[in-house]
Write a structure and sequence with these properties.
single chain, 646 residues, alpha+beta, Rossmann fold, 3 domains, six-stranded antiparallel sheet, 19 strands, globular
Length: 646
Amino acid sequence: MCGIAGCYQQADGHKLVDIMTDRIAHRGPDAAGFWSHEDDGVAIHLGFRRLSIIDVSSAASQPMHSGGLTIVYNGELYNYRSLKAELTARGTRFATMSDTEVVLEAWRSWGPAALDRFRGMFALAIFDERSGELVLARDPLGIKPLYYLRRRTGVVFASELKALIAAAGSQLRIEPGAVVASMLYYWLPDQRCAIDGVAKLPPGSWAVARPDGTLTVRKYWDIADVAARAAAGSPADLREVIEESITAHLVADVPVSSFLSGGLDSSIVTVLAHHADRNVDAYTIAFRPQDRRLEAMPDDAAYARKVAARYRISLHEIEISPDIVSLLPRIVDVLDEPIGDPAAINTLLMCEAARERGVKVVLSGMGADELFGGYRKHLACVLASQYGRVPGAGRAVVRGVVGHLPVTAGGRGLRYSRWAKRFLTFAELPEEQRFRRSYTLYDPGELAGLVSPDLASQVAQVVEEHSAIYTDNALDDEINRMCLADARLFLPGLNLAYTDRASMAASVEVRVPFVDTVVAEAAFSIQGTAKIRRGQGKVALKQAARDWLPPEIVNRPKASFSVPLRAWVRHDLAELIRDVLVGGELVSSGVIRRQPLIQMIADDQAGRQDRSKQIWQLLSLELWYRNAQAQGVGHEQATGSRAAAG
């Protein structure tokens, strides 16, 4: 796992690559490499930062050059040994034990068709001296990132946005629509980038840049097509598929550990990984009791201890009581774009603790909720379909009662009150709108009232983009339509994005066995009614897990990978919210309006409404906005901003 950067057809390519690789040195502290080629009117400069996982010898260093092809590659190919055997049988000779060389030789033998054979996570660039073309490619589900910027007649690319900003910040501008999207979602869909002109290569895509200045992007794998084909077939054997995937993800020449929250997904991954390799240990987090009380959080660490003790897994426990005022600016910088999910802090701190013990590779249960219907929003939307059949008078009574419920009392968070209020914000909407509102932070009208009038059209555009993606499928059941939308939006835009950035900031690779093409296909072969049934989510996965885990873990309520957000917003961050957010750049420039913001904060402090997620996201956005400006990135002043700020 590494960091890559490059410049194609750039006169200042060498300088830019040096800048970019220095900025992402955390992704690969073990070694650095550089390669350039300038001939026949073609210029290419490639840079690399290495985190050694497979073939840790210097022979596997990058950029790797062989027979006119040169590669920089960020990722892991879990089936590289079988591909290597196939290529060897075809006459290919290998000089290293690395998966990088297998990727390079597979491209030489099969060209773009090689991408369909790769099983793993990757972002790569391959330059062909014969054609003068540069190829970029990204893994099917978007685990590894790849940003690129069209610049004059060429392309600049890197593993992280911060590298491109470091290289070309003064030429870049903040994209207003992305700012609005980040406020709606609290993260950015993979189809958008916070910086205008910078794009993310879509999951399951490859691109070719040519000496004539053209850049063509093509899909080689599409989860919507895969889901449609799988739904038309027979249900897969989940036990076999998941066991095989977890075993495949253990390929490494260094020790492998696992995250263990005590929830279903992380317990499956940890227990099966430990069964396959007894050296696999685990990491979990715990919070201060007073923080859990206000958050109304279960004690996940207690469940993690039970799992570890039952299966004799060595467990490393980390109590999180961070100086959040100091940590927040750091996590904002780590995340690159305005991602307002505080769970990224958990990932960063756990990875740092693992790295201190010499661990480079950690397994995660991420992806199971998206593919198997495990989020509360999935269950809530199913319940909303039934709620819609309640007579209107009955629904009016429910709205009146729930509207008067507080969300805190006596210093304790009232979880069910929060959930009830949240449920009524979307329960009576049509399917696509209901699903969008079940997990976004605002309804469109509320968001339009919070931002500058000049950004109101951006709100409508972001909402329409969600509708277009949600309805673009051939599936015949609502539950799988929600799962597919999550696999296309929520998974790459939020969970995979923050996991990559936060883990790599600690120089640790996180592997996600559920986010696998074989697992995804198996997931969509299962009908939605087998995923959510009788008020329970992830039913099919739980049935499979009964062979692996005790009932108290299989049947426990959903365990969120969360933080004591409400305690932080009410107490630790109160001064920062007042001084930095209310008195900040977003308000002064007119991006958001002062009065709706003040009202939101007051409602949260008084316990009338739980607005902690919105406030955290806006505070994160404010710090990101300032960071971008400090690095020379421009922004559009909202028309009439001083009036709008009032």
